[in-house]
């Protein structure tokens, strides 16, 4: 079904308003309008920092001081960021009883800051630092204030408890996300290029278990023509408030979205 942006938005709002079990999967794109650069693309983090040198566990083990150059810049950006209308929209959907959980690949804490209560942090959280020599853990803010790179009492350089390439997904997050994917009836996929496994497998799992997949992204992704039922083409902070407005007062004339199939 093809349709105007408004038609597609209305269709998505109807699906959400039906009150099935909706889960959101978010990526860096949802936080772009909070001033946090995404990873891929011309303005992305990986243009400035080669992931092979800065974002693999091997890189951290070889040269943690160098990796902390990136981490410290990243933490400064995260500290200055606030949730945008898309984060607030998801929190609002949860309060309305229309969203069960958010699975996020982001490590910026902006879903929680916006009021979302059930957030599955698929790629971990920088709130804690962990010692990969003796497995001691520390609150991040405190240790970082002591100096960069932060060190464990044993002398080793600490690693934020986020997932580097080559590391497994935190066990609980993987379990919870898979359970949500298998049991949801709608998956809202927002702001991810769907290029990094295993997160990019979540939409396919949801689809195989019968969920409808709604994608919000200004660009097409590998999911768009294969897994996605409804692609709303636009920025998340523009689309989410329109969807909520449409749910609250149907057909009042929201602006926006292209459906496949
Ligand atoms: P990417 O940077 O790969 O993709 C961001 C996506 O957001 C792209 O598809 C953009 O088109 C889209 N986008 C941009 N602006 C948007 C907006 N205003 N609203 C909605 N969408 C927008 O980021 P992720 O897919 O999150 O992992 O990347 C996945 C993982 O790769 C990250 O968690 C990180 C990275 O390497 C690790 O470091 C392990």
Tell me about this structure:
With 261 residues, the chain is of the alpha/beta class. The protein has two domains: 1-35 and 83-123 and 169-261, TPP-binding domain (Rossmann fold); 37-80 and 124-162, SIR2/SIRT2 'Small Domain', CATH 3.30.1600. The chain contains eleven helices and nine strands. The chain has helices at residues 5-17, 45-48, 51-54, 57-62, 64-79, 85-95, 110-114, 140-146, 171-183, 202-208, 236-248, and strands spanning 22-26, 101-104, 119-121, 124-130, 137-139, 159-162, 186-190, 212-216, 230-232. The strands form two sheets. Strands 3-2-1-7-8-9 form a six-stranded parallel beta sheet, sandwiched between helices. The structure holds 2'-O-acetyl adenosine-5-diphosphoribose.
């Amino acid at each position: 079904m093809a349709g105007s942006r408004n038609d597609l938005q209305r269709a998505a709002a109807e699906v959400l308003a039906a009150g099935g079990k909706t889960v959101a999967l978010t990526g860096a794109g949802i936080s772009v309008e909070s001033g946090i650069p995404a990873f891929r693309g011309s303005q992305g983090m990986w243009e400035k920092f080669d992931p092979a040198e800065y974002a693999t566990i091997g890189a951290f083990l070889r040269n943690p001081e160098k990796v902390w150059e990136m981490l410290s810049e990243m933490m400064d950006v995260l500290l200055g960021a606030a949730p945008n209308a898309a984060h607030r929209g998801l929190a609002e959907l949860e309060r309305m009883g229309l969203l069960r959980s958010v699975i996020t690949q982001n490590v910026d804490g902006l879903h929680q800051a916006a009021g979302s209560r059930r957030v599955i942090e698929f790629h971990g959280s920088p709130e804690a630092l962990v010692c990969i020599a003796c497995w001691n853990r520390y609150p991040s803010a405190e240790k970082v204030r002591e100096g960069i790179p932060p060190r464990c009492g044993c002398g080793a350089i600490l690693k934020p408890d986020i997932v580097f390439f080559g590391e497994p997904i935190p066990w609980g997050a993987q379990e919870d996300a898979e359970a949500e994917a298998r049991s949801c009836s709608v998956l809202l996929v927002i702001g991810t290029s769907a290029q990094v496994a295993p997160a990019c497998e979540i939409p396919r799992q949801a689809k195989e278990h019968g969920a409808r997949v709604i994608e919000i992204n200004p660009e097409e992704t590998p999911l768009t023509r294969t897994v996605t039922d409804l692609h709303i083409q636009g920025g998340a902070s523009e689309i989410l408030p329109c969807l909520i407005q449409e749910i609250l007062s149907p057909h009042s004339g929201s602006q926006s979205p292209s459906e496949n199939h």
